[in-house]
Design goal:
The complex is a heterodimer. By secondary structure, chain A is an alpha/beta fold. Helices cover 23% and strands 22% of the residues of chain A. The radius of gyration of chain B is 19 Å and the shape is globular. Classes of the chains: A alpha/beta, B mainly alpha.
């Protein structure tokens, strides 16, 4: 018999988990969650050893896209492999955990500088949900730091201290009149929800103790809630409409049996990220929606965006007498001094220092003796700066269906992404700013990596009051459909400079509460 | 200036924006599968421990507890037993080199890039998959302190140097 439920959530990442949690909080509702991926082994000592001792091994290699499953074009190309996970809990299983709010001006990009698009909601409307999101993600930070947008309360956890290697950056920024702040990060600076305190070892891509938030932790808590069910290894193939305004079911493929079935629900919430969400809508083409669900205007899959990133490195002119080395393999200090309204036109960016760690293991393996190693440790340090720049979303960047099927029985993916002149000009300005900071630190010539792109996939089902300008309404309801909602990074009309996950979770809390009210 | 592989290996904090891909992409040589192999015997574990101890002695790294070592070896030889073949390969090379020299000298021979008397493929596997692991185990258990550093990834304890002032002041 086909499963039935009140609310069907498609995707078990952090957005889906939060929506489900909010809906279940109302009671008397049952939620069925569909996840095409499988559970990944988390907090496992052996997996951690495999990942970090001997030859590094990606513990999530089996949970990401295979090269044959997508076609990526453009420059720089966006790679689905590695960055995006298809697993129980979603891509936060291996995220860095950086959690920054967007700033008020990010919601008014077009109004302010005539570029990109505005959000149909403003920062004030989202602020209470940002506070909830910080609780959900267990964010450590200091509310009194400069650079934060207006906030109604403190962070749930105190910040991690800055490491000694950050001092030169902090001093240089201060000398140039720029602020810096503790990195807001979803790591446990205290034990929380039964998970251990982060030990700050920097083996973060696979944490053996659950020292940072990962999406599976939220799913684990949901599994204990009455009314919640999760099906993994089950792919959502298409939404089935009984009329233009109403979806009656989602067609599913059970990968273990090959059986195709249906899940019927009153409400569907698509939380499959900025790649799979538009693909599901496009795959749902039917007589009522011949170009795909909510795609009469051809907006689905358009305006894909991803932060531009670039790293500069330069060698200190002075020797490293104190043998300071980057001690923690994650970011502890950031600056939002260039992530302001006045930088919006040229391209605002988030900035953080990175350093070098003495590769003692390789030195010893190479047979270097103590004196050789000490000479290397005391040699002038390499300083690094990475900026993460806001791009202006372009309709010419997109996600769509490709012929053939992937390993999960879903259509293969075609993704096209190219950086335009606004990004290149913004990056040039950012490099100049960084080179002034390097000079203040006391470094020589700067070497830059090629201008690259992040693993943040944003846009493709934009939020807009105007059905011609987007795919979902401000309530995240598909335009023209009464009972299908979409939540996640896909709905961002513009992307700001900040990492997106905190905003995704804030939107999920907001949608979950809206659904609770609508179904009360 | 072109960034060397070593420099790239050392660059930290590439951020949430794709750091994962970068770090794992340095994988060069996967351990060989050995699902049908018998588990390590008590004698083999003892000899591996001697190999590990000799590595620490050669590199003048502070001692680690045998229980720590055994827990790692046990964890890595549980199914899927991808490390059994590698441990046995390294152990054979170590035992061979040890016939006419001390244990630390035998390790030195495995490390020495100019010694071409050992099968290069087998020695490279032993160096990259076993010796490097032993070295990291020593470093993670506090061996990094010998070089004046205060922290090492994988070291789950102790203090680290904290900046004397909070970031940015209060502008």
């Amino acid at each position: 018999m086909s499963p039935r439920c009140d609310v069907c959530v498609i995707g078990s990442g952090v957005a889906g988990g939060v929506v489900a949690e909010e809906v279940l909080a109302a009671g008397r509702r049952d939620v069925l969650m569909l996840e095409a991926g499988r559970p990944a082994l988390m907090r496992d000592h052996r997996t951690w050893l495999d990942a970090w001792m001997g030859e590094p091994r990606d513990p999530f290699a089996a949970h990401t896209y295979a090269p044959a499953e997508y076609v990526s074009t453009g420059d720089p190309r966006l790679e689905l492999r590695g960055g995006l996970l298809r697993a129980r809990g979603g891509s936060t299983l291996h995220w860095e955990g950086m959690c920054f709010r967007l700033k008020p001006e990010d919601f008014k990009l077009h109004s302010s500088v005539s570029l990109g698009a505005d959000w149909p909601i403003d920062y004030a409307a989202l602020e209470p949900y940002y506070a909830l999101a910080e609780q959900t993600l267990q964010v450590a930070g200091d509310a009194s730091d400069p650079g934060h947008p207006p906030r109604s309360g403190p962070f749930p956890l105190p910040p991690f201290p800055a490491q000694a290697a950050d001092e030169r950056f902090i001093d240089a920024m201060a000398a140039l009149g720029h602020s810096t702040q503790y990195c807001c990060i979803a790591r446990n600076s205290r034990p929380i929800h039964g998970m251990a305190q982060c030990q700050q070892t920097g083996t973060c891509q696979y944490c053996p103790i659950g020292g940072r938030f990962t999406g599976d932790q939220l799913i684990d808590r949901l599994m204990e809630r009455p009314g919640f069910r999760l099906l993994t290894g089950v792919s959502a193939l298409r939404l089935i409409f009984t009329s233009k305004k109403r979806a009656a079911a989602v067609e599913i493929l059970d990968q273990s049996t090959g059986r195709i079935d249906r899940v019927e629900a009153e409400t569907f919430v698509v939380c499959a990220g900025a790649v799979e969400s538009p693909k599901l809508l496009l795959a749902s083409a039917c007589p009522e929606w011949p170009r795909g669900a909510a795609n009469d205007r051809g907006r689905v899959g358009r305006a894909l965006a991803s932060h531009a990133v670039q790293t500069g490195t330069a060698t200190d002119r002075a020797p490293n007498r104190e043998r300071v080395s980057h001690e923690l393999a994650f970011v502890t200090t950031v600056s939002r001094a260039f992530d302001t309204a006045e930088h919006q036109r040229q391209g605002k960016f988030l900035l953080w220092p990175l350093g070098t760690r003495a590769p003692l293991d390789f030195m010893l393996l190479a047979g270097e003796d103590a004196a050789q190693i000490d000479r290397e440790l005391a040699a002038p340090r390499l300083h690094g700066l990475t900026f993460q720049l806001e791009p202006i979303a372009q309709d010419s960047n997109y996600v769509t269906l490709e012929s053939g099927q992937d390993a999960l029985g879903l259509p293969r993916t075609r993704v096209h992404h190219a950086q335009d002149d606004t990004v290149r000009a913004g990056a040039a300005a950012a490099r100049k700013s960084c080179e002034r900071i390097f000079a203040e630190i006391g470094c020589g010539d700067v070497t830059w990596t090629p201008l690259d792109v992040s693993s943040h996939f944003l846009g493709t089902c934009r939020m807009s009051d105007d059905p011609g300008g987007g795919v979902v309404s401000r309530e995240l309801q598909l335009h023209g459909v009464d009972n299908v909602y979409l939540c996640g990074s896909a709905v961002f009309p513009s992307v700001g400079a900040a990492n997106p996950t905190l905003t995704i979770v804030a939107l999920a809390h907001r949608l979950g509460r809206l659904l609770r009210e609508r179904h009360a | 200036m072109k960034l060397s592989r070593r420099t790239l290996l050392c660059l930290l904090g590439l951020g949430g924006a794709g750091a994962t891909v970068g770090l794992w992409s340095f994988r060069r040589r996967a351990p060989r599968s050995s699902d049908n192999a018998s588990p390590l015997s008590t004698d083999e574990k003892q000899r591996l421990w001697e190999f590990c101890e000799a590595t620490g002695a050669l590199l003048a790294l502070p001692a680690i507890a045998r229980e720590d070592f055994v827990s790692v070896v046990d964890a890595k030889t549980q199914p899927p037993t991808i490390y059994l073949t590698e441990y046995r390969n390294a152990l054979e090379l170590f035992n061979e080199a040890r016939r006419d020299r001390s244990a630390p000298e035998a390790v030195k021979r495995l490390i020495d890039p100019n010694d071409h008397s050992i099968d290069l493929e087998r020695r490279e596997r032993a160096r990259r998959l076993v010796l490097l692991e032993f070295i990291r185990l020593y470093l993670a258990r506090g061996g990094f302190r010998r070089f004046g550093l205060s922290r090492w990834p994988g070291f789950a304890g102790g203090d680290y140097r904290v900046a004397q002032r909070p970031p940015g002041g209060r502008r």
